[in-house]
Amino acid sequence: MNSQSTTNAQDARAFYLSSFDSLSKQSFVNEPAWLHEIRRGAIERFNELGFPHTRLEEWRFTNVRAIAETEYELAAQAGEYPAEAFEAVRLPQLDAWRIVLVDGVFSAELSSLRGLPEGVRVQSLAQALETDGALVEPYLARKGSYEDNPFAALNTAFMRDGALISIPQGVELNKPIHLVYLGSAGSRARAVFPRTLVAAGANSKFEIVETFAGRGENHLTNAVAEISLGEYARGQFIKFQREAASASHISNTTIDLARGATFLHHNLNFGGSLVRNDITASLNGEDVDCTLNGLIMGHRDQHVDNHTTLLHEKPHCRSWEMYKSILDDDSSGVFKGKIFVQKDAQKTDAKQTSQSLLMSDKASINAMPQLEIYADDVKCTHGATTGRLDENALFYARARGIGPEAARAMLTYAFAAEIVEAIDLPEVRDELEGLISERLPA
Amino acid sequence: MPSSDETIQSALQDYKYGWVTEIEQEYAPKGLNEDIVRMISAKKNEPEFMLEWRLRAYRHWLKMNAPQWPYFEYGPIDYQNQYYYAAPKSDKPKPKSLDEVDPEILATYEKLGIPLKEQEVLAGVAVDAVFDSVSVGTTYKAKLAELGIIFCSFSEAVENHPELVQKYLGTVVPYTDNFFATLNSAVFSDGSFVYIPKGVRCPMELSTYFRINAADTGQFERTLIVADEGAYVSYLEGCTAPKRSGNQLHAAVVELVALKDATIKYSTVQNWYPGDKDGNGGIYNFVTKRGKCLENAKISWTQVETGSAITWKYPSCILQGDNSVGEFYSVAVTNNHQKADTGTKMVHIGKNTSSTIVSKGISAGVGQNVYRGLVQINKKAGNARNYTQCDSMLMGDKCGAHTFPYIDVRNNSAHVEHEATTSKIGEDQIFYCQQRGLSEEDAVNLIVNGFCKEVFRELPMEFAVEAQKLLSISLEGSVG
Amino acid sequence: MSLLEIKNLCASIEGKQILKGVNLTVNPGEVHAIMGPNGSGKSTLSQVLAGNEAYEVTSGEIIFEGKNLLEMAPDERACEGIFMAFQYPVEIPGVGNTYFLKTAYNAVRKYRGLEEVDAVEFIKIMKEKAKLVELDDKLLKRNVNEGFSGGEKKRNEIFQMAVLDPRLAILDETDSGLDVDALRTVAGGVNKLRDEKRAIVCITHYQRILNYLEPDIVHILADGRIVRTGGSELAHEVEEKGYAWLEQGAA
User: Which of A183, A185, B37, B64 is packed most tightly, with the most Cβ within 10 A?
Assistant: First the structure.
């Protein structure tokens, strides 16, 4: 390790505590009191929790020591992001409103937000906090979402900017919103703490694509997204994680769904060396439909860990979950999916599937599909399979003249196809197909 | 239809094994220290290696904490406020044959439906009866000895076959394994020992019947079964305890060793006292069961868990040898305040190993039922196979069913499949049965027995019938 | 030159010897039937011809159009013009029937030095061939064999044969599990694909498909060897007397 490293967790904590103190005297000094209150609560919680270790059940298979031991650069200044690199990730074919942040700082230049319908806000979170704090307050960190997660606590303590997306009651967006978090290349390991807030009013409709495209090796993205849908709102959220090969990506997403809401979440992982996503959806009203889908395309020595929680709080809700992991080379995957059905949540219909494909003899997977059920009139199932490509199908394809690599590629793609097909935006589907194809056996 | 409370009451009265045998008992002083460990070892005339092993375990235990991860909370257990040794007092040193066993005890087993007389009902099943801390008699010993089969109490094995005990004790569950197994290693009082020689197929079912009688007594028995190369044995275990208001700890250890080409079938019908309808009393059943399979060997666990206030056990298979096979079939019922956290671990180490897990959980009342399992395919375990099916059935809206499988695959030639479902008992099915003339209770029994069929099928005949009866008793009054 | 020449072929699976010296010569335009009781090695022969790596060829030769077939991978054999209709067609979830077949079709064309066809043109070809076996258009839109009935799967195999236009088609128990109507349709499809350049080897337990296919030559395979060869009358003899008399004769 280099000179930026510290040796133990105590020091790692001290680094963030002292950084917080100095930021409190500088950058955070003009913030409203309520915001500072939230920050202080979060850093205190982080101090109590410390960095997680693998003796904790939730972190058994993911070791974050490398993150804890790195003293990242925390300053928020945007670096250079080459135009052609931006072009490659901005989904040019997608007609969308774009909000772009570079190294955690809003870039008006790269964003294109003209023509938003009346009342719809898509803007820099930092700007919103400055001008309309009252609008943000009810949505920001309102459920104490960092209570159990030190990374979410750190994000809350150190967040600078991000995106605020607010859609008033009854507004149906006719174009998707593309939220792009770019990370520039840089010599020092940098940490950014992006924060995404989505508040969709009753009967509204939206589609959001969120892209993380980092170029900085050894950098850390520690992101938090808070998404809430009002009654009968409909939303789709697609997350593309395309960080640099040696970067760490940690994200915490909380989703609150009111009565009758319909929500689809797609968690698509391609980049990063150490990746951990926590996604928690609370079905807080009756008659909610919630889908959580995920794809891991692991290669090299990537480690991708997805933890999802579906909280069925009210009766007559339906949830579907489908996670697919394709792991090649030395990569490792973790899937922990918890379906929690509360006492009141009668007539819950929950179905979870996790499937893993091990492409190499060094790849590995840990799957923990869990059901915790306190209501009796429910239908809950989960299924998990792990294996390699079906030999019979491979032979069948080859007996029809298809070469061995092409046959493997075809079947591997087919394995991922369900995830692709569930995405409701053709341009995004094409992009995803392309990204998958790049990783298929040559 | 009677109210559910009434029927639950009657169901509880139906814990028909809740009486106490009035018999003079001999106790070690309450509490646990090195002297108690030495005393237990001395009582049993153990050789030095056993005492050493116990003391190592005891010293290790002092440094351990009770596990925090099980799903349920239970009050702290005061390890100093219970007896670690209780035995029926007898003037004679030890009964030499069944005829010398205290008639009170024989009557107890008679009443439990386990006559310790060879010519009676359970002909074809050899029984080792464990009463509190000691084995009180073993049937069919002579007949088995003709084949070279050793079936005796653990104490006798230590006395008569110390070389076998020393060779295998702790090789599957080391004394450092976990809090309760370590405690057991220090203070275990008796249990059963089985050795099946090379190539011998044991001609009858071997069975141990455990009975806790004394109050405030922990029962720590230890079972060791060794099937030598090519041997076969089917072993059954049953348990009951009197109704008492306090909780009693039962921390057993079972070790199975299946050498090359051997097969061990181990069946349990666990019916410890579950406590009353408010959750008072009952047995804490914290048990470590594990088997090791060498090449081509097979270990099959079948369990029907209807009793105990809390059950915490994971009969497991270490599939060390190539082509070895592990199986786990389980029915766990929790009614009233019962809690069960049970499942299995299948650890695939050898090539072409395969395992099957079928778990059926039934929750009623305010019972909580957890399946917790691990399927681990190690790096060198080429072509390993696992199939897991976990089904939970819920009756009533105050119970819970939870499924926590861990699937850890590090070899890409593995094929692992896990399926789980949780659903309510089918109202339409109950109605259909009722329409055809069945009472609601009969309908529930019919449906639940159907739900558990895959597991009951694995039990030896006599036990399967017993298990079905127990299941109906456990669930009486749970629907309505 | 003969199309296919099998010389003293011996093959095993998981160490068990199944084929114990098979000799067979097939010329262009011929229809051969290979009949035999269960376990005689019929399916092993077709799997070995298609190149299934689960089977080990322990000795012998297979020459296809002068080339050593045993040195070729399964896909090369397919591109050379060998088609096997599987006894149990494999379901491939997530792969569309049309996409699968187009990929195969273009792989074969590329191998033969022909230009690949685009989707529009391919669909035309497909539609035309689908009529041959009365294959429902809807099946083309589904995933490969997924959720197909037994009869639909077999029809799909013959449909693929029609599209891929092989030199040698091996029908592995294509008649099994078909009712009379389905059998007639499938056999009718095969008959339409008969020509002087193509050879067909029909592997079957029963004589009934041969009523439709009218083979030129009938072989009886028993215990890993061809024990009798004759005309279509041999098939009728099997139908009447079963296989026992042949096996006795072979011993």
Answer: A183
